[in-house]
Design brief:
The structure is a homodimer of 149-residue chains. The first copy, chain A, is α+β, with helices and mostly antiparallel strands and 149 residues long. Chain A has a three-stranded antiparallel sheet with strand order 1-3-2. A three-stranded mixed sheet of chain A has the order 5-4-6. In chain A, 25% of the residues are buried. At the A-B interface, helix 6 and strand 6 of A face helix 6 and strand 6 of B. Strand 6 of chain A pairs antiparallel with strand 6 of chain B. Chain A binds a DNA duplex (25 and 25 nucleotides) through helix 4.
Chain lengths: 149, 149
DNA sequence: ATTGCTGCAAAACGTTTGCACCTAT
DNA sequence: ATAGGTGCAAACGTTTTGCAGCAAT
């Protein structure tokens, strides 16, 4: 069975709060962890609808927030005004470079970034929870950039 | 007269494109550079309305984008789905820590971050334009956090 | 039995757009 | 004269909400 470990983690998380264990929540969890790449809440809702799910839009939106809190998925924000999510299933922590010409998003891992959030938070008297590091850039080689002429 | 230098820069920038020099645009520029702290486009529109400006909402939204391009203000995004702006008037480049309990935003300057965007962009074959580094954290000392019990 | 969750539709919110008129060039 | 800008209101896309019925505890 798929995502058995995630299911356990989510169940545990739900029980810790005053949240109920419902089939809808696991349906959303499965779909979110399966999703390739970054997705908006509505994107996921559409995909689920196409697979004949009966889960409502409202439930998708609410469940995604629970999945973020439980760290099974991550919340992202790439400069448009919509929230994107990303499955953490078998992923390591990474950051993003966004091409300002074509919108392409390149993921990268840089070891120098790792300690910064914790270090800076400590200095300022905070307990780090997460970070987001986005680089906005343009293709040097326009041939690689699909919307460059 | 205030913001004389900014006025010159903006004028030059406008001329370089096929943009016209209009009084409305300078009204928005003045208001944006004057604004203390981070603001949404609509926040600025309201403030201007309160000062009996007749500039329309549409013009405010459009002009702010021009001011970003001309680097007189910066575009920010702190995890809600709205665009915030920030005057660059007499400011150095900095990043932000957002308190997840009270929403307070702390600005910081860290020298280790400076070279990273350019270095990473080069490695990936991009030309860096800007970056955003946000740390999401919680107050260690709840007394400092206005919404902590 | 209680309290939380669901689905639905409507509302909210920030932002963008179409259009007729106006103004900088 | 012409291309571009403005103000207005309507439209837009995403997200949140209120509510009645339902289901997990």
């Amino acid at each position: 069975m798929k995502h058995e470990k995630a299911k356990q983690e989510f169940t545990e998380f739900l029980k810790k709060g005053k949240n109920r264990i419902t089939p809808e929540r696991f349906e959303v969890m499965e779909a979110a962890l399966e999703y390739e790449g970054h997705f908006g809440a509505d994107d996921l809702y559409i995909v689920m609808k196409n697979f004949d799910s009966t889960v409502s839009r409202a439930t998708v939106y609410k469940t995604l927030e629970l999945l973020v809190q439980c760290e099974l998925i991550s919340k992202r924000n790439f400069g448009e005004n919509t929230t994107k999510y990303e499955s953490n299933f078998r992923r390591q922590i990474h950051d993003h470079l966004i091409c300002m010409d074509c919108g392409r998003i390149v993921e990268f891992v840089n070891s120098n970034i790792k300690k910064l959030p914790e270090q800076i938070s400590n200095e300022l008297g905070f307990e780090v929870s997460s970070h987001s590091f986005n680089i906005f850039a343009r293709c040097k080689d326009p041939k690689n950039c699909k919307y460059n002429k």
